[in-house]
Amino acid sequence: MFHSFSSRTVMFFCILSFSLIHLCGCHAAPSETTAAVQTTEEAEDALTISSDDNIYYLSVASSSDILLPDEWECSDGKIIKLIKYPYSELGSDRKLVQGCQAGKISIYIGGTAVQTELIPELALLDIPYIYSGKPDDFQDFSLSLMEWMQPYYEKQDLLLLNWHMSATNKVIMQEPVNSIEDFQKLKIRVMQNSERAEYWNSLGAETFLIPFDEIYYYLQYNKINAIDGGFWTLKEQDYDLLNSFKYLMDIGFTSATAFVMNLDEYNRLPASVQDGVKELSEEHMGRLPLAQYKELFQQFTYIDLNDSILQTLKDNRQIVIDNLKNTLGDSTVSDFLLYTENLHDSE
Predict the structure, then answer these.
(1) 307 to 41, 178, 180, 315, 318: CA distances (angstroms)
(2) Is residue 142 part of a domain?
(3) Segment 167-219, tens digit of pLDDT
(4) Is 27 inside a domain boundary?
(5) Going by C-beta distance under 8 Å and a sequence separation of 6 or more, which residues neighbour residue 226?
(6) Is residue 2 part of a domain?
(7) Helix axes 194-202, 317-328, angle to 10 degrees
(8) Is the overall model pTM greater than 0.85, yes or no?
(9) By residue range, what is the domain housing residue 311?
(10) Is residue 201 part of a domain?
């Protein structure tokens, strides 16, 4: 079984989120100082009285730990000013990416695993063991997958400018898994993604689909003993409660942090500002060097999976594949699997 929980955001943030849903995405800066949060009507008024056509405001909502500058200079001197809102102020990842689709938020930066309701094809990344190469050869594989996914973003009025994908998804645990039966002892936090949950359930684990900002609560009250996803961001938080997680398992999912922009808004930008946004995404979405991966993982003991466990993990991927064929269609899933196999063959 799995549990799904909604965010426990306090009333203040509910009111704030409601007011921010009317964010203006991008407009030339007015000659007078204006509030960062504006309704669409106010933004249109500001646009008509603007005397400075060289500054463009873009609203950014991020659920990741990627640091962005306050402004970015384009090749012709035009300036992109970023109005940044952390996800804790605007709501869940799902709300953020939906706000970007609706044009209320210019840019959304966040995990692909929680975008599957809007872009169902992203669930294909949750098929275990679609990548079998070396971690340091993963970049080309990642960029090819991004190209494959781009049309599905555009169908939802979004532009996938860049993404950072780790070679595999690491799962941290309080106790090691030494047999198939040990999976039944797991109470694992899973991103709000049904494909991941169903995979773990098929192994006998109890899953908790909870947003990132509620993980601390479940750690505090010992409700979970394993965590799938959000590892890097958790490390940034430096939670003492993570010290009880001593073991690490390489399960073989491929998920990404995506840099996404509203497509219509992007198309309205001057060419130089479009290029500036691309440069911004490339500058701040680079992959984490392999040496840093290894350094971060040194505190954990890798679980050496025996042949029986490894074969079961790989066999159970068929459950995910069959479910995806039912939702996305046999053709889409088969094309994706063939595409990834061809990427391996070309390496």
Answers:
(1) 62, 11, 11, 12, 18
(2) yes
(3) 556 788 999 999 999 999 999 998 777 888 888 999 999 999 887 778 888 88
(4) yes
(5) 171, 172, 173, 174, 186, 187, 188, 189, 205, 245
(6) no
(7) 140
(8) no
(9) 170-254+292-346
(10) yes
